[in-house]
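At this stage, I wrote out one protein, both as residues and as discrete backbone shape codes, and that material follows here.
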Amino acid sequence: MSTEIVLSPALALRQPALFTPTPKAARCVLEFFTAQINNDHTRKAYLNATRRFAKWCDTYGIARLADVQAIHVAAFVKHLQGEFSAPTVKQHLAALRMLFDWLVVGHILEVNPAHAVRGPKYVVKKGKTPVLTAGEARELLDCIEPDLVGLRDRALIGVMVYTFARINAVLEMKVKDYFVQGRRGWVRLHEKGGKEHEVPCHHNLEQYLDEYIAAAGIAADPEGPLFRTTGRKTGEQHPMWQQDAYRMIQRRAAAVGIKTKIGNHTFRATGITAYLKNKGTLETAEHIANHESPRTTKLYDRRQDEISLDEVERIAI
């Protein structure tokens, strides 16, 4: 009787025939997407990129992995530039480079055909995330009704605004991640790359969290999710997902007549811009946002937008 373990990847991880010419290659590719990539969003994006490349190769008759050359990768990148934005094209190229590097290390390929291929130039000085004014953000928070769902939604938006947190870091918070230290409320955020980040609460945020936790009755469940669904549809409460937060934000924005096409990330940019407009420093904003570089924080600074609008009005025609 054989006791050998046979790996059978889930459908979501299965790769086209181009990348699985042998069992060894198939195993190496599977290891790349499971052991090498930990972030779910990155894994999904890289899977889509490699599948799109395999489909392109099939269209042009490139059936063997060993036949892929730098000129093919360059032609694929050129093809993508006619369909996608520069950041998306660069992401596709990064996915191929990393996968081919892994296949070289695994002795599936001799050289990386994507190594010498250059992607499109892309220079960013200002982010594209839609931003609310301080007045719009204040109106949105004030107009949320004080029932349980409203208190939850207000606290969730408040964490993003007052701590500059990413939506995933907020949704991953447990009840114990809101705690008191030195007579002040603090939040503990689990950011990208496994980084743990602690931020003191603004007095408004303290009020939002205290009222929500008291109304929800979850203080005695420190290991439970801080932001959870009501359970009205399923009969059980579950941690909120990113899609749940997005739908909630769209509903709340529509209720107060905000026409800006906002999303989850809007409140991170809104909080940073409001802080800097109130004479906060870029270095401190970088620390609160847990950015690696002030250049990243600068992308969220939209103070220049108001200056530009004032200058446009000088065109006296």
